[in-house]
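Entry for the shared binder. Reason: the reviewer on the internal report wants the predicted structure included alongside the sequence.
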Amino acid sequence: MSRTWDDDWEARRAGKSCPMCAEGRPDESHGNARVFAGRVSDAYLVRGDVGQPGYTIVIWRGRHVADPTELSEPNATTYFREVLMVARALEAHYRPAKLNLEMLGNSVPHLHTHVIPRYVTDDSPGEPARLMRVPDTHRTPIPEAVFHRDVAELRVALSGRREPSPR
């Protein structure tokens, strides 16, 4: 059988040259705006229009891990609670028909969760969102006024919502 994963996969999975670790905890990541800074994660509203308004990425910000199975029980609990806080705020703000929470890490092996609102009008009902199946690197930005309004409203909705430290 021939190898299908990149030759450096094991090193990248172990954290070598991890872009998510290297960036720290910035207010912006690749043009996306942080709407939540939790105890163990940051959530970024995606600026590019992917056809799913509210698409957000929640990134684990502790030591490098590729999968949630590498977390201690308290850290896993805290991470998933923070993901749910973000998901609930997105639900309240955007009112989607459904939310998809996807943890892939097949190209960037660092724990992160894609929170993807699904709408009755989206282009792939009954399937994974198109943006996850057919990535488009040339996304048109969401209009500035709409994006900044949503960022501000989500930050207010998520402010003061922090997971208590595990005991």
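Summary line for the report: The beta strands are 28-29, 32-37, 41-45, 56-60, 98-102, 112-118.
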